[in-house]
Amino acid sequence: MEKLAKLWPAIFPLSLLSVPFISSQVTNGVVWSYGDFIVAAVLLGGTASCYQWISHRAGNHFPYRVATALAMVASLLLVWANLAVGLMNTPADDHNLFFFSVIMVGVIGTLWSQRRPRGMSFTMLAMAAVLFAITVGLSIHIMPLSAVTLSPQQQFSVVFCLSIVALYLLAAWLFHRATFLLH
């Protein structure tokens, strides 16, 4: 069983990537290049590996593991959406680079906190705050002066980003709860 747990970061991405691979063989609706598969494999494998590395500290403490999973899924969705379609306008738009600062805050905070629950809670709060500030700031910046509202794509991007903020806040609360369980 322990060997299977160690192979999970490799098995998980391969099993997920089999869906678009098989779909691309039987239909024209799924068009992925080899580069798309490589990027997806790195993202999924990296996420699974990071989950194992971070949650290893928790043992069987449920809130810590769930918080770690929420943070990893939220970060994966943020990066995937940004790379696939771009959260603001197009993937080539330079404004999208701001969203990667959220991930950098997470990496720095995780290393700084040494994966301790209290530090991870603060890291999640910082990630939520940075993402919220970027979302609001870019929404104000890209909205034309004559427009009263954002375009439907921009509205979706704002709702998507605020949903990720909510996941980070939930992860922060769960890490806070884990503080009392692990010490």
Automatic annotation (TrEMBL):
Domain of life: Bacteria
Protein keywords: Membrane, Transmembrane, Transmembrane helix
Membrane-spanning segments: 34-54, 66-85, 97-113, 125-144, 156-175
Designated name of the protein: Uncharacterized protein
Originating organism: Shewanella mangrovi
